[in-house]
Task: structure prediction
Amino acid sequence: MTRAAEAIAALRERLGGASTTAALDAELLVARVLRTRRAALASEPGRALAPEELLALEALARRRLAGEPMAYLTGCREFWSLEIEVTPDVLVPRPETEQLVERALEAIAGVPNPAVLDLGTGSGAVAIAIASERPDAAVTATDVSAAALAVARRNAVRLGFRNLRFLEGSWFEPLAGGRFEAIVSNPPYVAAGDAALAALASEPRLALVAGDSGLEALARIAAGAAARLAAGGRLLLEHGADQGAPVRAMLQSAGFEGVATRRDLAGHERVTEGARAR
Result:
């Protein structure tokens, strides 16, 4: 009979031994198969794993050893202090994307009942985070992937936010009309030949790759955003660390004012924004 503490210790060794990451991953995976929380395992180290739970744990361990992100194995990732469901149909939300939420909230600060648009919403993490902070906002989120939208809708329902709507289609295409005080997007921005894609093989290519340059999606959004923004409304785009200059040029060419790029905590250029002329 295998106990929880024994299973954690054995899995930790397989995943990397004494490292903090290996220990955390092992605890999370054992908690997953036991359908409990990691914190609860500390109080029940002698809990036995049934044969089917051991089989499930072995399957998860092999997937992790093959490089699959933990979020897909546990089915969730924390973002903006919210537990966001993730599946292989959506990107795993990254901590640096919280800066996009911060900048969006700043853009609509003081605006009553703002309309916000999130393009390429994926799991819905950004849209839901904004909706959680501004219950008076009307948040619209679009995505070309029906499977991704299903995940986003489940997240919104489970978390209890009703000030969102989800529309299927590419970028602005599903919109019937209306203007927004803020448009945000964390679109695909990896070039098709980028070596970094090898480390991202488990995540949906559709949400990662934007043509040969990595700039195609950003360019489409920059070109179409002004027509969807209210006067003075802001466009906010997340992008790669080496894409700040070309994205600034895109926004300036499209007539945006006050174009600027914000750096993330690692010092990399991460979010570029600009305002539609009043």
